[in-house]
Write a structure and sequence with these properties.
Layout: H1 4-12, H2 14-29, H3 36-48, H4 53-69, H5 78-90, E1 104-109, H6 116-129, E2 134-139, H7 144-157, E3 160-162, H8 170-184, E4 188-193, H9 200-217, E5 222-230, H10 236-247, E6 252-256, H11 266-274, E7 278-282, E8 290-292, H12 295-303
Helix pairs in contact: 1-12, 2-3, 3-4, 4-5, 5-12, 6-7, 8-9, 10-11
The structure holds guanosine-5'-diphosphate and magnesium ion.
Guanosine-5'-diphosphate binds at residues 110, 112-118, 149, 228, 256-257, 259-260, 282-285, 289.
């Protein structure tokens, strides 16, 4: 139905599928009647699939309610009910438009190594291919390597970059980038940032300063802050998100590295625990390996 895009998602989710979805089928195959034992086994499985305790409880409660509503007696109908419950869970948080109008800023935040710079390259490519004018700001000035890496992605995606030297003030880079964006009629300015969570005060100051520059210089722009989380860290990603929520505004999540992990279930608990929508998912290291998160497609890919 979705062609290559869907196949990519399916292969990206293969590890999660083998530890979660395949086990659901195993449990249901051995279930003679829908009873407390079945729910307990499913509950245990959800927890081991990194869906987290709170979210698991909610899913099991909703599943029971749905099965009761449908007056379901045959275990073969349980998978469909579970799919519906997961889909409801994944569709609950509302998204704003990243590109609304002709002046947009995307702030990409998150700790080191989660995939910020890589995701920026992929997003730049995505919008460039839609015919948008995109510009990158190398506001992770903490390491020279970070600037070089964004530079590589700028070339790869054919999108310009505004940068300064290592150690420069990140807010000054954003300032320059905003002036360039205005002059070039850029539609989407994407800002990379450094994520040194071990120093919360520093991080908060740095992000506030960047936000103040945008408030002052580009108040007419539509701003979206996306937090990048690494799916392979499982439930730790939730803890990280909670810490970031304390220091800055987060509109949405980019969940990377779903391809390398069996912990894909974390996407379900992110939305439940944080009530923040997932905008994009990373399913590989290549330029095309970022997809807009589509709950229906995700659930279908998991269960197909
Ligand atoms: N397999 C896989 N690797 C990814 C994905 N996203 C990022 N990476 C890798 O994660 C590593 C860190 O990424 P980077 O963008 O430098 O993270 P940053 O420190 O947050 O900017 C790199 O080796 C990336 O290739 C993904 O979706 N899947
Ligand atoms: Mg980086």
């Amino acid at each position: 139905m979705f062609g290559g895009f869907f196949d990519k998602l399916k292969s990206g989710l293969s590890k999660t599928k083998s530890t979660f979805t395949d086990k659901v089928s195993e449990i249901l195959k051995l279930t003679v009647s829908i009873d407390e034992d079945m729910y307990e086994e499913l509950e245990e499985l959800l927890i081991t699939a990194d869906i987290g305790m709170n979210t698991t409880m909610a899913i099991i409660d909703n599943l029971k309610r749905k099965i009761k509503e449908k007056k379901l007696k045959d275990p073969s109908g349980v998978t469909q009910c579970l799919k519906e419950v997961l889909l409801e869970q994944l569709s609950s948080a509302a998204k704003r438009d990243i590109v609304g109008g002709d002046k947009n800023v995307l702030l990409i935040i998150g700790v080191n190594g989660v995939g910020k710079t890589t995701s920026i390259g992929k997003i730049a490519n995505l919008y460039k291919n839609e015919g948008r004018r995109v510009l990158l700001a190398a506001a992770d000035t903490f390491r020279a390597g970070a600037i070089e890496q964004l530079d590589v992605w700028s070339k790869r995606s054919g999108v310009d970059i505004i940068k300064q030297l290592e150690g420069a003030d990140p807010a000054a880079v954003v300032f320059d980038a905003i002036q360039a964006a205005k002059a070039r009629k850029t539609e989407l300015l994407i800002c990379d940032t450094a994520g040194r969570l071990h120093n919360k005060k520093n991080l908060m100051d740095e992000l506030s300063k960047i936000n103040r520059v945008i408030d002052r210089e580009y108040s007419e722009s539509n701003r979206t802050a996306l937090l990048v989380l690494d799916a392979t860290t499982g439930q730790n990603a939730i803890i990280q998100a909670k810490q970031f929520k304390e220091v800055c505004n987060i509109d949405g999540i980019i969940l990377t590295k779903l391809d390398g992990t069996a912990k894909g279930g974390v996407v379900i608990s992110i939305q439940k625990e944080l009530n923040i929508p997932v905008y994009f998912i990373g399913v590989g290291e290549g330029i095309d390996d970022l997809q807009e998160f589509n709950p229906e497609m995700f659930v279908d890919a998991l269960f197909e």
